[in-house]
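Thread: Modeling a multi-component assembly for a lab meeting

Hi all, long-time lurker, first post. My supervisor asked me to bring a structural picture of a complex we are working on to next week's group meeting, and I have zero experience with this. I have the sequence lines for every component (446 residues in total). Could someone generate the structure of the whole assembly? Inputs are pasted exactly as I received them:
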Amino acid sequence: MKLSLFIFSMLFSGALCAQRQVAPEYYNGTHVGDILPDPTLDDSAFKLCDENYVPQYYMVGIGYQGEMIAVKRKCLSTYKPVDVNESGLITIRFAMNCQGKTGRFRVQELNKEYKVYKFDVRITSQLVSITKGLDKWKPGSSSAGASDSYVYLTFKIENGKLIDVLP
Amino acid sequence: MRTILYILFVLIGVQSAAQRNCNVYPSGSKEQTACWQYSNGCDEPQGSKPSQQYFDSAISVCPTFALAWYEKSVPYLKRGDFKTWRELLDKAVELEPKQYLADRGWCLFKFLKDYNNALADLLLVDSLRQGVPSHTGDDEYDLRILIALSYRELGDTDNALIWFGKSISDQRSAAKHGNYDYLHRAITLYRMGRFNEAALDIEEALKVYPQLADAHYYKALLLIKTGSKELAMTELSFAKANYEAGFDHYDPYTELIDRVYLEDIDKAISSLSFELQKN
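Re: Modeling a multi-component assembly
Sure thing. I ran the full set together rather than chain by chain. Output:
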């Protein structure tokens, strides 16, 4: 019934909706943000506990020893400013397994207008290294017990200095 | 308390928007078809491929169906892909600015702490809505409180207090307050050294939410300023106990503005204990 209505409406509907080109999109995995393993990028020793179910961090309540303020403090104290006139956001998404180990790091670099931007490699490489070095994560949990999750950290850069860590 | 929040946020993630009555559109119209596709998308887990593909279908049928652009953007925001989030949400804003500028301003404030752009969006919303109050999507804040906090974070405490005042006095007359409005203004006043006014606001904050650890913490700091150290220690004990019981200003998605952490409370206890022992 719904299909025939759909076809009918496609054929006979009026011009109520303005025409606009819509670019197709492709999804790598089964959910927005899925990080599929890449042997050219990833440490082969890192394994998820259940590749079939990787929820987001906010669904399972991850933590860090000393709370997230400890993550922020560690990042801010470890990062060394780079003397360049570059500002924006560097987001590092990664997977955390049910034991609190992390892997599959992926980077998105944006300027302050939220457009793709390429930062000085001295900035991004530091932040990736700092993120990989965070080793006091507490995995989230679901009804089945300790859970894998996807996590991200966003680093706010102002003229080569790290000024904040989100979320 | 945190368990309740987790459950609420998971449920919100499964059906992230109010169910829409598609019969408001002309029968058989592209808009009605888009609406059905959008509704199907909301029935799927947020961010899943089927959900996103339903939103794609809605947009394909009716590219000006703003709700589908908005809903499609949400998982990208929550998962840290801010480039795609902005691309999608900006389309919704372009189509229906009065509705979606508020969401964009709120998300810029909450997720990105981008106070400049948040303030621009929220002030424009206030202007478009001709001062009629509106709230964040989770109903936690009157948008004027976010305007106040944005001004504060940008260093303009005068305007911050004006906007706090507008919201709080409106809400007082409506006998309705956000859980944290008085707390945020109290913290603002505390930082400005206006301790008496801050103390009054903290008392109001505790009337609205008596167990809030953050409010007990700031009450303690204010008591220390007035020399009431023993009472301050009592408040810090409340703060710690309530924090550990989950009565803190916690959010599963982000670290919220003005958030008090357990280490803040513990440091204050340690410092005050030392002071009390000296005396």
